[in-house]
Specification:
homodimer, about 290 residues, alpha+beta, 60s Ribosomal Protein L30, Chain: A, Phosphoribosyl-aminoimidazole Synthetase, Chain A, domain 2, 2 domains, 7-stranded mixed beta sheet, 4-stranded mixed beta sheet, 7 helices, about 30% helix
Chain lengths: ~290, ~290
Amino acid sequence: MVVAGVGDDGAVLRPPAGRELVTVIDTMVAGTHFPAGMSARDVGYRIVAVNLSDIAAMGAQPRWMTLALTLVEADADWLEEFAAGLYEAASEWGVMLVGGDTTSGEQLVVSVQMSGDLAPGTALYRSGATAGDTVFVTGTLGDAAAGLEQLSAGAGEQYLTRRFARPSARVGVGRALAGIAHAAIDLSDGLVADLSKILEASHAGAELDLQRLPLSEELLRTVGREQALRHAMGGGDDYELCFTLPESGLPAEISTEVTPIGRITREPGLVCRDGDSVVPFDNTGYRHFR
Amino acid sequence: MVVAGVGDDGAVLRPPAGRELVTVIDTMVAGTHFPAGMSARDVGYRIVAVNLSDIAAMGAQPRWMTLALTLVEADADWLEEFAAGLYEAASEWGVMLVGGDTTSGEQLVVSVQMSGDLAPGTALYRSGATAGDTVFVTGTLGDAAAGLEQLSAGAGEQYLTRRFARPSARVGVGRALAGIAHAAIDLSDGLVADLSKILEASHAGAELDLQRLPLSEELLRTVGREQALRHAMGGGDDYELCFTLPESGLPAEISTEVTPIGRITREPGLVCRDGDSVVPFDNTGYRHFR
């Protein structure tokens, strides 16, 4: 598949016959997308994971990637750790690094472009959500936002900080949904913001049941339910998948990895219910008026 | 070919059946790779052109690209001009922008990843140069280095500054050489540095005839022959192609676009002759001892 990788003016690749390609790109800037002090290994791991997450949201099988790295200084130890994290995340899904460009600048900027493949016509888009679909998410929500707060406050490694620094791209779930889910997106900006993109693209609305949102015990224990919900709704950086399809169509092999949290409606807009009350919210989290 | 472009988590592409893909990536940092004051339109044009040049050096037909753009501030006028330059260069070769990520940072960093395609087994590498091959280059050399000096000194637009800001990617020549040239590279670091990469990869040497180096009248008039040769040998940024093949194998359709400048030898090392004298040099230009 990789005819020639790193080392020439470009890489040469043989795409699998009869497949479509998916290509994604994601950039992280130190101090903007992660705390400037995050470990080199985590930076390397995370830039691959967030691209894997985009590939997963499209339903594709990740194959190869290229790297653009702008460094403040050429520190061999930092680079070695960065590469270790990069390869760790890539090797989990057999992704090959086929090219790169390293430059120097005033700030650490790391960008990965990743390609994957899938059967023609099976790519997942944001635009297919249909009234009556169930809205599902993978994993638990809000952990990464709480982890980022802890990292920024100088906390050491622990469950929540790892959820920010080393997100688990849901490639297996995405693959299982290719050609099946009506709409999908990965949760990088937060559930409200990202689900709203599905609703806008699909000209539909949704009702969410906040009591069904999957929240980790660690998150609930650390910040309490109110703040946990705020992180889950508006926090971002979870890199879980959110997708819609008729509940009966959910592939059995992923049923234990996903949680139904609501349904798609014909009326535009996003309505969030917490028991009997409707909860107003905005993209940065929700505001609870009793 | 582009099933779905910008606007979802990723683009979906249908690669042409039975072709191999070539993928390249090139990053430019303001102040490092171009003067911080270069026009937005030229920044947009140039980042596409330097990637087209890598695609050309591989012998491929450019098809699509993704963009990672880190901006100091979101200036709508700047972005509009940047996009105009980007699309101008891309449209010359029918390249589609299929994805991108725009971030904010302390410094302008722009990275493009481009993909193209070619017939299987026809990609051009640095490693195939063979004793007896003739060494060719496209266009004229040294203009961009002189243009960069002028730009950095605050000069307005003119022939030499345009040669830096808006390089002409030799895509047509590269396509004609696919499956034919023994080795190829694009001249981004300068003739000595880049030809040396061919020689190292090919375990060969070369003899160059400095009197045959193609130098523009504008360059000779502006800086004189001595400095023109220095720019041609060590200046970089020309984005011309350098390639090797037996002279009799040169495709007729490109014969007017290229200049023979030397030949590949069995003995390692690069020997430069100026008439009867051998000229010592290093990667940053050549030093002439009489």
